[in-house]
Amino acid sequence: MSIAAPVSALMAAVLPVLASALTEGLPGPTKYFGFALALAAIWLISQGEGHQKKLHLHLADLRLPLISGVCFGVYFILMHQGSHAATVWPMLAARGAGTVVLFFFAAAKRQLSWPERRTAPLVFLNAVGDIGGNTFYILSGQAGRLDVAAVLGSLYPGTTVLLAGVFLHERLNRSQWAGILAALGAIVLMTI
C-alpha cells in the first residue's frame, strides 16, 4: 500500500498537469513549486509505520498502481472537460456507468448481494463522501485550473491518515507529519 497509494496519486496528478499545460497554458513558477511539494507530500503521507528502508521494486509491482493512476488522471481530465457546461450531468453519467460496470462485475463473480444491515450505513456514508468529493472537484475545476484542482484532489491520503488517527487512534509517524505539513504548504503555494 505504501507504494500503490503514492504511485497512483502521482499519476492521477501528473496527467491533469500535462493536459492543463496544453489546454490552459503553463502556470506560474509558484504553482509548479506547489505541485512538487504536493507530490512529495503524497509520498511522505503514504509511508506507513513498518515501511522498509530499502524497497526492491519490479515493474510488475508498479503495473496496477500505474494503471489505476492513469485511469484516475484520465477521469479527472474528462470530468473537467465535461463539467464546463454542467455540474450534475457529468456526475450522474460517471455514477451511472460505474454502477452498470460494478453490477456486471459482481454478477460475473457471483457476489451480487446487498450489504449487511450493520455495514449498510457505512456503505451509504462512503457513497456520500465519494459523490461529495467528486462534486467539489468539479466545482473547483469550474472555478479554476484543472491542474490545481487535480493536484489538490490528489492530496486525499493526508485526510485519510488524519481521520485514521482521530477515529481509529492510529499514530502518525514523522514522515506522515512531514507530509501533512508539506501538503499544507503546497495548498498555500497553489492558491496564491
Beta strand % = under 5%
What Rg do the Cα atoms give?
A: 18 Å
> How many domains is the backbone divided into?
1
The residue fraction in helices comes out at: over 70%
Task: Count the DSSP helices.
Answer: 8
Largest sheet: none
What is the structural class?
A: mainly alpha
- For the residues shown, what is the average pLDDT? 81
Distance between the termini: 33 Å
| Helix-strand topology string | HHHHHHHH
Query: Shape from CA axes?
Result: globular
* Count of individual beta strands: 0
Low-confidence region ranges: none
If you had to describe this structure to a student in words, what would you say it looks like?
The protein is built from eight helices and no strands. The chain has helices spanning 4-24, 29-45, 59-82, 88-108, 120-143, 146-153, 156-167, 174-191. By secondary structure, it is mainly alpha-helical. The chain has one domain (4-191).
Secondary structure layout:
Layout lengths: L3 H21 L4 H17 L13 H24 L5 H21 L11 H24 L2 H8 L2 H12 L6 H18 L1
What can be said about this structure in brief?
The chain is mainly alpha-helical and 192 residues long. The protein contains 8 helices and no strands.
List keywords for this structure.
single chain; 192 residues; mainly alpha; 0% strand; globular
